[in-house]
Task: inverse folding
């Protein structure tokens, strides 16, 4: 492994045994090879550890810890990162072969960009493609993403690559759970950080019965979660004496979330 990798890949693992081998193989098979893969086992109780240890690639840095939650795990990964760029992955998704090459090239060519995402294609438990995410495909330029984020999260978290320095500056907020990425995007956008996407599908995003997307968000009233996220964000901004046009748009999005959440709560269950 080179002395200083260009990219640090953060892969948090918690009971991901069913899909973990395929995920790691997709990372280690990237056409861009100058990276370190930081695998952090967050107290898994399945056989994730044995799967991780079955890989002998010298680019892997394997860390174990008692179960601490995703935010703490991600922040540890940021602290451990040695690369100029930092890529995210989840233990059940699949990287398409040129993802790292294309995102690193984008950041090289656009020094003003802090975060670059990509389009994602949904897959199921069997790895079968099940469709695309309309909001993802509709918002890929910096201007589109900035306009959309006060109202919806249009960035697929496991598909991003960012400048490590920017991730260290902002970090993940321990007060946020399950939508820690949305809070991070709002804080970055409020300060004018540029976020955009390589407008190509470079990640297969797995949705299954135990995934966060399926279990924690879709089965609950996600609009209350978004309302509380934006409330915390705006409260912190105001306490620091800050309130700009982006914050104003977030306020509008927050009120819309509250109205939608209340309407969904009042709607009779079928």
Result:
């Amino acid at each position: 492994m080179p002395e200083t990798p260009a990219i640090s890949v953060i892969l948090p693992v918690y009971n991901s045994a069913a899909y973990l081998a395929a995920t790691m193989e997709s990372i280690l098979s990237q056409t861009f090879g100058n990276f370190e893969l930081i695998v952090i086992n967050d107290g898994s109780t399945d056989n994730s550890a044995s799967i991780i240890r079955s890989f002998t690639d010298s680019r892997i840095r394997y860390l174990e810890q008692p179960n601490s939650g995703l935010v703490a795990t991600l922040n540890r990964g940021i602290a451990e990162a040695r690369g100029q760029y930092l890529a995210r992955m989840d233990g059940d998704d699949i990287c398409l072969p040129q993802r790292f090459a294309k995102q690193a090239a984008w950041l090289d060519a656009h020094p003003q960009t802090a975060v670059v995402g990509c389009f994602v294609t949904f897959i199921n438990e069997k790895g079968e493609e099940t469709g695309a995410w309309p909001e993802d495909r509709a918002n890929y330029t910096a201007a589109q993403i900035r306009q959309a984020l006060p109202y919806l999260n249009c960035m697929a978290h496991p598909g991003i690559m960012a400048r490590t320095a920017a991730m260290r500056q902002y970090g993940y907020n321990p007060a946020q759970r399950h939508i820690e990425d949305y809070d991070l995007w709002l804080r970055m956008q409020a300060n004018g950080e540029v976020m955009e996407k390589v407008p190509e599908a470079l990640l297969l995003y797995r949705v299954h019965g135990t995934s966060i997307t399926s279990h924690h968000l879709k089965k609950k009233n996600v609009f209350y979660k978004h309302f509380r996220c934006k409330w915390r964000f705006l409260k912190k901004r105001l306490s620091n004496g800050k309130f700009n046009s982006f914050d104003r748009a977030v306020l509008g999005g927050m009120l819309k979330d509250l109205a939608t959440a209340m309407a969904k709560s009042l709607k009779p269950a079928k």
Q: What stands out?
A: Residues 7-209 form a domain with the Spore Coat Polysaccharide Biosynthesis Protein SpsA; Chain A fold (CATH 3.90.550.10).
